[in-house]
Amino acid sequence: MEDNYSTRNLYLASFLLLNGIELKGLEPKGKIVYFLFDSSALTQNLALDFFRRKSQVEPTRFIDNIKNLRILIRDILDENGFNRKTKSNSY
Fold it and tell me: How does DSSP assign the chain, residue by residue?
């Protein structure tokens, strides 16, 4: 079994993708979706740089990645019965 770097942080996931780290998959846990990346030293170092605010990105590519990741989140939540547009009125 391969080790994965897992995060639910949309912005970190976008940053990792922007820096060439391949998205290996998505893992839904209830209404939360985790992004799975290879757990390499590069991934770890990029994540640290992200949280230490030691990196710069090209803004439009960063935003495009966020939009695409949001679509993936909505798709996987819909597949798992968590469609946000339907409201449950249980009293």
Answer: ---EEEE--HHHHHHHHHTTPPEEEEEEETTEEEEEEE--HHHHHHHHHHHHT-----HHHHHHHHHHHHHHHHHHHHHTT--TTS-----
Domain-located, residue 85 = no
Q: Considering the entire predicted model, what is its pTM? A: 0.84
Interval 23-36: pLDDT, tens: 999 999 999 999 99
User: Does residue 49 fall inside a structural domain?
Assistant: yes
- Cα–Cα dist 37/16, whole Å: 8
In a domain, 84, yes or no: no
State the total domains in the chain.
1
First to last CA, the chain: 44
The whole domain housing 49 covers 4-79
